[in-house]
Amino acid sequence: MKLLEYEAKKILAKYGIPTPRGDLATNTAQACEIAKNLKPPIAIKAQVPVAGRGKAGGILFVDSVAEVEKAAEKLFSVQIKGFPVRSLWIEERIYAEKELYFGVTVDRLNKGYVVIASAEGGMEIEEVAAKTPGKVIRFPLKAPYGFRPYHARQIAKRMGYTENQLSTLANIFYNLYKAGMYYDAELIEMNPLVETSDGNFLAVDARIIIDDNALFRHPEFKGRVLESELSPQEVEAARNDLAYVKLDGNIGVIGNGAGLVMATLDAIQLYGGKPANFLDVGGGAPSEKIAAALKIVFSDPAVKALFINILGGITRCDEVARGILKAKEKLGIKKPMVIRLVGTNEEEGKQILMEAGIPVLDSMEEAAHQVVEIVKGT
Amino acid sequence: MGIIVNKNTKAIVQGITGTQGSFHTKLMLEYGTQIVGGVTPGKGGTRVHGVPVYDTVEEAVEKHTANASIIFVPAPFAADAALEALENGIKTVVIITEHIPVKDSINVMAYANQVGATVIGPNTPGIITPEECKLGIMPAHIFKSGNVGMVSRSGTLTYEIAAGLTKRQLGQSTCVGLGGDPIVGLNFIDVLKLFEKDPQTEAVTIIGEIGGNLEELAAEYIATEDYPKPVVAFIAGRSAPPGKRMGHAGAIIMGKAGTAESKIEAFQKANVEVAEKPSDVALLLERLLKQ
User: Fold this and answer.
1) Which of A111, A206, B23, B100 is most buried (CB neighbours < 10 A)?
2) Which domains does chain B have, with CATH numbers?
3) Quick one: closest CA in A to B236, which residue?
4) Is B248 a catalytic site residue?
5) pLDDT in tens, B163-220
6) Could you give all domains of chain A from N- to C-terminal order, each with its CATH number?
């Protein structure tokens, strides 16, 4: 779950990390009201869950409180990388003497967390790493000890800080790590962490992505679905515990198992077709879930035909067949469907579909080829 | 032979009384896997398909000799179950459970490393050495004993490819599901090393997918170590867009990292044949094994 900037900053503040003075506005009048209590210049920042928001026009700077209204109106009227702007964070603009980067994320290879720091921040860390790899400090952590205060001091020192600044910076690093661990963050970063001309540090932007699998430990985020982040199909899929990703083609796809569904999309592409979506029904899906999956896929108007690819292990082919029929009757599906069905209870499943006049194939590649040809003909 | 599990493996099932645990215990027993006990807190003294159930792993290993465990415990409690198995001396732990928090998995892997144990998963279909031992949830009938080692990050796609191999009389030495999560116990290189030492394995199939760079590292390993057995790879997700999680928690392209192209290119550079379609894996293996 991607938190918005203001949510991340509230968490940072709770952990004693300085951030610029500011507040959240959900309309223009509120934005003006907040600005009255701030010292210009002022930054007006769209709260959207995307990286590279500044470049996309989601952050405006003004020199006086009077200009806030126009800037806020403008941001509320646009979309940033496809996301409507529902709220703005209004804060005092900070001039940077220096921009630093500090973050904690997951390192697959070392099977642990890794701290990444750089004395050159501001842009995306991947860019920093590409431009000046020598400037990026990668510090893999050893579980279960993790990141200790002396590690934080080592990093501050390597970044060239001494005396009071070293302790202040190390505290900020350590506190960010603690926040990340508490919230089960798969990514927590301050970028930029600004050093001001008087030698203080402030987290001017922050990003937190919480591990979705750990949300049971954080009930405060329960029910907080950023619907603006999801298509209607994705919202419906989440409700039905289905993994759905919208793509830009016209062949709907349903399958069981993430790897198999990905390979199915690839096969469609290989034969010259374009998949409209990724939909994994998971293992052991009952007929209701299969029917829900069909409903979701056909609710996308771009879909011209559907390819269902099931290799039953714990998923039973007869359940799949019943789900297909259920959906077909209920939704009155007229669009063509190509079905590949093998594995557990294959014969029963095939018979159910044959009796309803729906042909079933054995080979996934043959089926992929066929669905592509059907769509080409429409 | 094969790797990690064989006919001498004696396993316990943690979470044996749950729907999945009980169902798959039955199937594993039918396959001939030695399941010596089960664990579910509060259900000690009962039996599941004839297997005695204990409240703790400690008790189960006191009563029986067990060297492996398979875990079906729900995600919030699965890491605890894995640590319990490891602390009680179990050296092979298969974690079937999906949706375990990354932080929990990291702690499990650190402890496994400290005690020198092997963890397979989480979010894995498990491991099978055909006709000897199945510790997992895969449909057994699609596998057949033979000389191809399989290692994969996905479930059903592995079944698809394994069924293709079996159909063409290419049996398998062992098939290992690494798991679909970002943090898993084994990586491709670990398993390549084990297959290298296994006399039964004559060729290896790597089934990878988008996300992370473990496939790239495996390719590099094959090239630099001049890996002595032929390898065929298949990578799922050529058509996946960046920034979207494709079902598996670990299947996500971040920026420019983790793409199928990067993985395919890495294998090609290492002179590893990359199959374009799942069914091509068997054809490529047939050719390489004849040489």
Assistant:
1) B100
2) 10-120 (3.40.50.720), 138-290 (3.40.50.261)
3) A263
4) yes
5) 999 999 999 999 999 999 999 999 999 999 999 999 999 999 999 999 989 999 999 9
6) 21-92 (3.30.1490.20), 98-221 (3.30.470.20), 231-373 (3.40.50.261)
